[in-house]
Amino acid sequence: MTIAIGDKVPSATFRALDANGMPQAVTTEELFGGKKVLVFAVPGAFTPTCSKQHLPGFVTKADELKAKGVDTIACLSVNDAFVMGAWGQSIGVGDKVLMLADGAGAFTKAVGLDQDLSEAGLGVRSQRYAMLVEDGVVKVLNVEPARGLTCSSAESMLAGL
Amino acid sequence: MLANVIRQTRLTGRQVQRAAVRSTHARVQVVTQAIAVGQKLPEGKFKYFDGEGQMRDVSTDELCKGKKVVLFAVPGAFTPTCSLKHVPGFVDKADEFKTKGVDTIACVSVNDAFVMAAWGKDLKAGDKVLMLADGNGQFTKALGVELDLVDKGLGLRSRRYSMYVEDGVVKVLHLEEGGAFTVSSADDMLASLP
């Protein structure tokens, strides 16, 4: 079952690197509880579209999104926390975008937005999408219909707020 | 009542230990013994990005046939020991290895090719160390050197090791427990080359 507007996000635990570069757990409760969170998901850290357009777009628009009431902007991928941390650092996200690792893909599968990229040697990954979640409830959900970046970009999400 | 049955069978020249535990829920565990000196490397396929940024496949056969190869494995790209000590050691000593007749130095990890390429670039591996992706862990499993890092959010990875392989046969093997870094450095391998 794919998640839809009006649904509560499923419970899951992500990992993110702390200030010392060590992985720490981040639960969906901690992330979403009582907050306005913009989560965007990518198929893979260090892959072309994700690196050149999707993530940088959210770094650029972070201040504008925060001005519109978004508390947290988070980037999600089925990669481990070390890889997410290194990727975020290479793009220069600073404290603008929280890099979340859905290492075993539990959250991704639970929201029904996984895809099989085994042919490219990537295994099960996330589809590209962006959603606005308020206190754990999905208010906006833009899933890319095909390869490429359209409705899930920072500009699109900003326009829809 | 539990009955333990352990049978040893030979499978394509490799020993496989089979432990069958009979209970109300039957479970069979198949454990591949770790690779050893004198054995031929199992078949495997890796992905990597070449100098032109194209993703390519390479088999263990293509990598090793008729060549002298130093292969070392790490638990994870962008993890501390791997990034700060293990890979840099091999990048620094690459020329010395080549002088001693080594054709190729390759780093293997259970990560995808995009991650391995980015990591290699970050560590300035250049054309000194080939960064190979064992994305689905198939080669690592076939070698019998899996490392369970599921609790750390990393899934199944490789134990740290370094080996010297001649025409596909393991001549020198330095296999660590888990991710320890004691015997598998570039210096250790240089000193061990026949």
TrEMBL record, chain A:
<dbReference type="InterPro" id="IPR037944">
    <property type="entry name" value="PRX5-like"/>
</dbReference>
<dbReference type="GO" id="GO:0008379">
    <property type="term" value="F:thioredoxin peroxidase activity"/>
</dbReference>
<feature type="domain" description="Thioredoxin">
    <location>
        <begin position="3"/>
        <end position="161"/>
    </location>
</feature>
<dbReference type="InterPro" id="IPR036249">
    <property type="entry name" value="Thioredoxin-like_sf"/>
</dbReference>
<dbReference type="GO" id="GO:0005737">
    <property type="term" value="C:cytoplasm"/>
</dbReference>
<comment type="similarity">
    <text>Belongs to the peroxiredoxin family. Prx5 subfamily.</text>
</comment>
<dbReference type="InterPro" id="IPR013766">
    <property type="entry name" value="Thioredoxin_domain"/>
</dbReference>
<keyword id="KW-0049">Antioxidant</keyword>
<dbReference type="GO" id="GO:0045454">
    <property type="term" value="P:cell redox homeostasis"/>
</dbReference>
<dbReference type="InterPro" id="IPR013740">
    <property type="entry name" value="Redoxin"/>
</dbReference>
<comment type="function">
    <text>Thiol-specific peroxidase that catalyzes the reduction of hydrogen peroxide and organic hydroperoxides to water and alcohols, respectively. Plays a role in cell protection against oxidative stress by detoxifying peroxides.</text>
</comment>
<feature type="active site" description="Cysteine sulfenic acid (-SOH) intermediate">
    <location>
        <position position="50"/>
    </location>
</feature>
<dbReference type="Pfam" id="PF08534">
    <property type="entry name" value="Redoxin"/>
</dbReference>
<protein>
    <recommendedName>
        <fullName>Glutaredoxin-dependent peroxiredoxin</fullName>
        <ecNumber>1.11.1.25</ecNumber>
    </recommendedName>
</protein>
<keyword id="KW-0560">Oxidoreductase</keyword>
<dbReference type="GO" id="GO:0034599">
    <property type="term" value="P:cellular response to oxidative stress"/>
</dbReference>
<keyword id="KW-0575">Peroxidase</keyword>
<keyword id="KW-0676">Redox-active center</keyword>
<dbReference type="GO" id="GO:0042744">
    <property type="term" value="P:hydrogen peroxide catabolic process"/>
</dbReference>
TrEMBL record, chain B:
<keyword id="KW-0575">Peroxidase</keyword>
<dbReference type="GO" id="GO:0005737">
    <property type="term" value="C:cytoplasm"/>
</dbReference>
<comment type="function">
    <text>Thiol-specific peroxidase that catalyzes the reduction of hydrogen peroxide and organic hydroperoxides to water and alcohols, respectively. Plays a role in cell protection against oxidative stress by detoxifying peroxides.</text>
</comment>
<dbReference type="InterPro" id="IPR037944">
    <property type="entry name" value="PRX5-like"/>
</dbReference>
<keyword id="KW-0560">Oxidoreductase</keyword>
<feature type="active site" description="Cysteine sulfenic acid (-SOH) intermediate">
    <location>
        <position position="82"/>
    </location>
</feature>
<keyword id="KW-0676">Redox-active center</keyword>
<dbReference type="InterPro" id="IPR013766">
    <property type="entry name" value="Thioredoxin_domain"/>
</dbReference>
<dbReference type="GO" id="GO:0008379">
    <property type="term" value="F:thioredoxin peroxidase activity"/>
</dbReference>
<comment type="similarity">
    <text>Belongs to the peroxiredoxin family. Prx5 subfamily.</text>
</comment>
<dbReference type="GO" id="GO:0042744">
    <property type="term" value="P:hydrogen peroxide catabolic process"/>
</dbReference>
<dbReference type="Pfam" id="PF08534">
    <property type="entry name" value="Redoxin"/>
</dbReference>
<dbReference type="InterPro" id="IPR013740">
    <property type="entry name" value="Redoxin"/>
</dbReference>
<protein>
    <recommendedName>
        <fullName>Glutaredoxin-dependent peroxiredoxin</fullName>
        <ecNumber>1.11.1.25</ecNumber>
    </recommendedName>
</protein>
<dbReference type="GO" id="GO:0045454">
    <property type="term" value="P:cell redox homeostasis"/>
</dbReference>
<dbReference type="InterPro" id="IPR036249">
    <property type="entry name" value="Thioredoxin-like_sf"/>
</dbReference>
<feature type="domain" description="Thioredoxin">
    <location>
        <begin position="35"/>
        <end position="194"/>
    </location>
</feature>
<keyword id="KW-0049">Antioxidant</keyword>
<dbReference type="GO" id="GO:0034599">
    <property type="term" value="P:cellular response to oxidative stress"/>
</dbReference>
